[in-house]
Predict the 3D structure of the following.
Amino acid sequence: MKKYLKVINLFLKTALARQLAYKTNLIIDLVSVSGSIVGSIFILSLFYKGNNNLGGWSWEEALIIQSLFIILSGITNILFRPNLTEIIEHIREGTLDFIILKPIDSQFTLSFRTFAPAGLSEILVGISLLTFLIFKTNIYINPISFIFFIIMFGSGIMIIYSLWFLVATTSIWFVQTMSISEVLRNLLISSRYPIDAFPATLKLLFTYLIPISFLTTFPAKTILGNLEITNIFTSLLLAFIAFTFSRRFWKFALGYYTSASS
């Protein structure tokens, strides 16, 4: 564990040095992120004109889901997207050989090799918005509820990571996987809305087949004190299954990888 933490620290320093070398790009990314957040909240507000509710969720409750989505989006942009996108480049250019031959787990290296600092602003905005809403609506979160929330939200992060890594792994067979990534990205965008607002068929689909509801809606219910304990265990189970499958699929895919020297 100490070795892996040391490697992450080295990855972080290298990534920051590389990102800060192009300050203009960083500023553009921050502006883009800000515009995306404002646009996301504006679209949500359109559903609440005339004192309407969305699937039984009030405006403030829906904003809690929105804040969690912003945090998840930030984590995806700061870590998952830049790293897993590079897998395609490694396979295309044959540089995956150097990753596999290193005396450290290849999935770990590919998952934490680089960071995109612009995503940090999304995380900070999401946390600030969530904190504001908790105080505004006088929500009391006891220690047990907080622990349940961390478990639920952590499970959601693991599910997102596993889905992204699964898509990236398919590039061993199909070098161009951008279309699949876009489909996944658009599906994940659906998590910015309460799952109860979707029709029954989609609600079932987004709960068990593509567990989008466990990304934001159920963690938000934990904050509001409306979550059933069975959903805690379900989220842990889904996260475990997703990660285990992505791990085994990566090991399986490596058997079909043709290195640059082959």
The chain has a mean pLDDT of 81. The CA atoms of residues 33 and 102 lie 35 Å apart. The first helix runs from residue 2 to 20. DSSP finds eleven helices and no strands in the chain.
